[in-house]
Amino acid sequence: MRHLIDIMDLSVEEIDGLIAKASDIVAHPDAYREKCRYKKLATLFFEPSTRTRLSFEAAMLELGGQVLGFSEASSSSAAKGESVADTAAIVSGYADIIAMRHPKEGAPLVAASRSDVPIINAGDGGHFHPTQTLTDLFTISRELGRFEGLTVGLCGDLKFGRTVHSLIAALSRYAGIRFVLISPEELKVPSYVKNKYIKEKGIPYRQTTSLDDAMSELDVLYMTRVQKERFFNEEDYLRLRDSYILTPEKMTLAKKDMVVLHPLPRVNEITTDVDLDPRAAYFRQAKNGKFIRMALIMKLLEVE
Amino acid sequence: MRVDSIKNGIVIDHIDAGRAMEIYDMLSLDKLDCPIAILKNVPSAKMGKKDIIKIDSEAAFALPVDVLGVISRNITVVTVKEGEVADKRHVSLPLEISDFLRCKNPRCITSTEQGIHHRFRLSPEKEGVYRCVYCDAKRA
Questions:
Q1: Which of A118, A296, B31, B61 has a CA-to-CA distance to A151 between 20 and 30 Å?
Q2: Nearest beta carbon to residue B110 from set A106, A124, A192
Q3: Would you call A173 exposed, middle or buried from its count of C-beta atoms within 10 A (0-12, 13-18, 19+)?
Q4: What would be the CATH architecture of the domain defined by A7-128+289-300?
C-alpha cells in the first residue's frame, strides 16, 4: 500500500506514468467509467477548499466510484476533539482511499501512520500539496509536450508558496531545466530550497525582481499571489504587488508558445483580459487536475 | 570549587557553555536517583568556557547519549568504571531522534495532536541541521 504525502514520494518514472495515464483518460474517457466501481473515496477536508475537493470527488465519480466525507472540521468529530490519527483509523474502515486536507502541517503523515488504506495529501497548511504539483506537471506536459530544456519562470511569493517549492523539487529531476526566480527581495525562494533542488544539482538559474525583464526567455510562467499579510509596510506591498500583475501588455514580451500557469485562486495578479490569450493555461490547468487525480487514484488503488 | 571524581558512571564533557540544563532535560536526568554534578562555565583551553555533567551511577550507562549530537558535535562522553576511564568518545549525529525534542512550529500537527512521537531527521542540506519529520521546520 502506498500513500502520497510529498511529491518526492513519487519517482520520475512514476510521475511520467501518471501523466501518460491521465493523457489516456483524456483521450478515452469511456474506457475508465467503471474502473473504480464499488470503490469509495473519503474526502476529509478539515478546512474549506473548492477546486481540490471537487476535483477529487469528480475524479472518483468519473471512475465509477463513490464519495463520502466532510468539507470542514466543524462537521466532523474533530470539533469534539478527535485526533487526526483516530479519524484516519476509523474512516479507513469505511473507504478504500482517503484524500485529506488539514490546516496543520504533517497531518496527512500522521493519518498515514494509522490508516489501512492509501492517504493522499490534499494540502497540509503551507507545507505540501502534491496533487497540485502533479496537476502543474501534467499541464506543462500537455501544453508543451516535454519538460527537458524548458526555462521555467516562477513569479510572486516564492518564499511561502508551497506550490512553488514542490514544483521546483519535481522539475529539478528533469534534464535541461532552467529556472528564473522572479520575486521581491522579501519573498525570495528560501535558501534551503534553492540549495537542495537547484544549486546542489548544478541547475542553471537566475533571480530577478523584474517580471518584464524575464518574460522573453520563459517557456513557462508560473504566477502566484503576493500576499499582503507577508509585508510589514503597506507601501512596500502595494509597490511590489503592482510589479507582478500580468497584463496583455506584458504578454507581448513573451514567446508565442509560452504558457501561463497559476495554482488559483487569483486575486489581481493576472488581469482578466489575459484569460483570452491562448497562452493562458490556468483554467485548463484546473481542469487537468481532475484527470491526473483519476490516474493517481487508480495507481494507489492498484487498478489497471 | 571541587567536585569528586566518579566511580561508576559517565562524564558528559565539552558541552557548549550554558547548555547543560538542556541536556539534563533531554536525558530526563531528574529521574535518576544518584549524585549528579552540573558544572557551568568551567574554563576550557579549547572552548573558552564549557559545561560538564557528571553522573555517578551505573544507570548512566543506559542513557541514550547519542542524541546529544543534536546539541553539539563537540560533546564527549567519558565512561568511568571502578574509577578508571573505560571509554571516551565523541557523540555522532543520529540520523533520526524521537521524543527528545519538540517541534516549535505552531502550524505543525505535533502542536495539537496527542499521542504521536515527536521525530526529527538529520537534513542533508548542512551538517547538524535537523528538521521535523512532520512539517520540515528546522529545529530552533
A1: A296
A2: A106
A3: middle
A4: 3-Layer(aba) Sandwich (3.40)
